[in-house]
Design a protein that fits this description.
single chain; 175 residues; alpha+beta; five-stranded antiparallel beta sheet
């Protein structure tokens, strides 16, 4: 009875009402898409930053596993107080002052420049990460600190972003 009356009724939405609802729906959809686009770009940037920090920690771990006395003798001892030495992919062909040895050598008897390039420039997720580390010789440090601590800063750059990590390589002789 009432159902039959509804089926036979000829009223409906006007063209203006349909167009207005489409416009409102489009505005809401566009706003939601902007939110998801922004969330994706934030997630991508955060992922890249996490990878940059991971690469910096990896280099710091590598340095900590090296012989403290070799690192100190090779890199820090030739420096004057307050100076620093930066080693990275752009310095692979450089020679150490005084000795003429390659700035960085991964293993004896190998191609130092090729080893250096692999250590300091890596492709992760189609992004090139360039690593460098700086060894400092602090000014006004007491002899104990100079003897057992090697101040190191690791910097990783990719795209227009940078991640930095600072710390110390400590002597194996500290108990």
């Amino acid at each position: 009875m009432n159902f039959r009356k509804l089926l036979n009724e000829k009223s409906g939405f006007t063209l203006i009402e349909v167009l207005a609802s489409i416009v409102v729906f489009s505005i809401i959809t566009f706003a939601m898409l902007q939110f998801f686009t922004h969330a994706y770009s934030y997630t991508k940037k955060s992922e890249d930053q996490t990878l940059g920090i991971y690469v910096a920690r990896n280099m710091m771990n590598y340095l900590e596993k090296q012989s403290f006395s070799n690192l100190k003798t090779r890199y820090q001892d030739p420096l004057k107080d307050g100076d620093s030495l930066r080693i990275g992919a752009d310095r692979c062909n450089d020679k150490m002052p005084g000795t003429g040895e390659p700035v960085f050598s991964y293993a004896e008897g190998r191609n130092a420049a090729a080893d250096c390039a692999r250590m300091f420039s890596m492709n992760i997720n189609n992004q090139i990460y360039k690593v460098d580390f700086t060894i400092e010789k602090k000014k006004n440090w007491d002899e104990t600190k100079k003897k057992y601590l090697l101040p190191v800063k690791v910097a990783v750059t990719w795209g227009n972003q940078t991640a930095e990590l600072g710390g110390y390589v400590t002597s194996e002789k500290i108990r």
